[in-house]
Write a structure and sequence with these properties.
4-stranded antiparallel sheet, alpha+beta, 4 strands
């Protein structure tokens, strides 16, 4: 089986036997004074594949890596990449104003927070395997701070996205209410003047109905008054609000039965 580690690394066979063809989860392994950290590079929402990075500490305390340079500085550079990416997303979160922007930030923060959490756990395990390495302790502590920062940014992004959704739903409900009020008022006007329009149409027909020779303008005012009274009664009937659920006249829907 082809090793995923650099061929020049003289790691114990016990460690090599525990490695597969891919990096797998982030973890720390120790044998015969050698420490191997299997970590992941900072993830991206556009690339879900995990890319492994390997950091080897030999029994003399010297560090090597396959991607970030030699010495403990390579491991520090790896942690710095997480810090820089979290800082950029926090800055983007401060200026985001739309649900789409919050969602884009959340897509980046979710895998980053998860990877940072596993990074912290791997460094903690490595610190337990090599308790005398002060640099590893410092990096473990910094990874813990980054884990908290990533989780807080993720929570802020999720809360901001939820607020945007709730706010637009509230605006939509307000617009629907305003339209319902306008429609209700229009219905009241129609109900008020509908009898007058009906009576005007009836008495405006070219046929004998017995009021042609009635004294004017008394007949006009009688018909107008009768139409207004009928319209007022109709408007009151249309404007009556339905009884709330649970009140007389309304039946509360039964809850769905579980099968």
């Amino acid at each position: 089986m082809k090793s995923i580690l650099p061929s020049a690394w003289t790691l114990p066979q016990r460690i090599r036997d525990r490695l597969g063809e891919t990096a797998g989860r982030q973890r720390a392994m120790e044998a015969e004074g050698h420490l191997l950290l299997v970590l992941h590079q900072p993830p991206s929402a556009a690339d879900p594949e995990r890319i492994g990075r390997y950091f080897w500490r030999d029994p003399t305390g010297a560090w090597k890596s396959n991607a970030c340079g030699a010495g403990i500085q390579g491991l520090k550079s790896h942690v710095d990449e997480f810090a820089n990416k979290i800082d950029k997303l926090e800055d983007a979160l401060q200026v985001a104003t739309s649900a789409a922007s919050f969602y884009g930030i959340l897509r980046e923060l979710t895998p980053l927070a998860r990877t940072t959490r596993h990074l912290h756990a791997a460094l903690q395990h490595g610190r337990e395997l090599c308790p005398a390495d002060r640099d590893l302790i410092a990096l473990r502590d910094r990874a813990g701070e980054l884990e908290r920062a990533a989780e807080l940014a993720q929570q802020d992004a999720q809360a901001s996205l939820d607020f945007q959704v709730a706010y637009h739903q509230e605006l939509e409900s307000q617009r629907s209410y305003e339209m319902a009020v306008a429609t209700h008022r229009l219905n009241l006007l129609v109900a008020l003047f509908f009898p007058i329009a009906t009576l005007s149409s009836i008495f405006g027909m070219n046929m004998a109905h017995g009021f042609e020779n009635a004294p004017a303008p008394a007949t006009f005012y009688v018909v107008l008054g009768a139409g207004l009274i009928a319209g007022l009664i109709l408007a009151i009937g249309v404007g009556r609000r339905p009884a709330p659920i649970g009140q007389p006249g309304r039946t509360k829907p039964a809850p769905p039965r579980r099968t």
